[in-house]
Amino acid sequence: MRFLTKLVTTTVGVVCTTASAYLFIDEKKRHGVLFAATISQAPNNNNNNNDIIQPDQQSLSSPIKSSESWNWNWDGRHSDMNKTRIVRHIYLIRHGQYQTKTKVEDQKQLTELGNEQADWIGLALAESKIPFTRFIQSGLIRAVQTASIINKHIKFNRIEQDIDLNEAFPFLPEPAGRFADSVATGRIELETERMERAFRRYIHRPLTSQTEDSHELIVCHANVIRYFVCRALQIPADAWLRFNLFHCSITHLVFTSDGRVICYGIGDVGHVPQERRSIEQGHNNDVKGVARLCFIMAIDLSKELSMDLEHMLNSESIGEQPQELYDFRHVPNIDAEILN
Hints:
alpha/beta; globular
């Protein structure tokens, strides 16, 4: 008997933003194949495994294993490492929806929907009871307004402002597409330098002087967050445009004293009602349509399950908001899970 197990509901890619991924599991053989992968999950213990998709290194578009080892001194602080269980939590928050039909930065203020989104995330952060230790915003009006609305709920005593967190265009993305001819090389160099400066300022392991866990909020912009995530996870920085972020979404990174980086969520938006989510002005998310696209992809990869999938495609439950596995308000115990 086959069934579908829901794995992920956070923002994952540009095309399948917020789409749920599904793992197909054969209870008798105990193996599974993720619709976006081609790797068997179980050892080949019998001779009747023609239905198991086997990895073929030559045909893969990218290697299964990275050729680069983890750089433990990625933040230049490894020599100062403390052998402690102290960790840093960084919550990167994208601003709310804003006016885009203007080229004047001060006029790119939050829309009515953007104000609502900021209110939703402020409520969620307040309800989390997380003991925030720092609150930082970029210098652009949409981030300033978002931070102000959030602070009505969490009532932090001081918000810092850093213009190095302003939106920018980092490395020319790969694939570059329409950006190849439209972005000046000089501009990319300047903005990448600024974003890297901000990265080194805020994205690093706990300081040697730190005596307890810290929880830092940074309200900034999609490109900045995506660049930070790629750099922190040691993913090629030119991959930053391969995933997207909802307005007022939360990206949660955790840094241990020995230099490990754990991502607990990218673009989590479970605190915003589904019908009030957006990526850019005039473009709200069609979760049902994206879910259907993912099911179609799954059908192509596992035709045996087409009957089960067709049944799911015709189900009214596809349009419902999926239950989310990640919740920034209930983070697993870092000491027990990571450092023991």
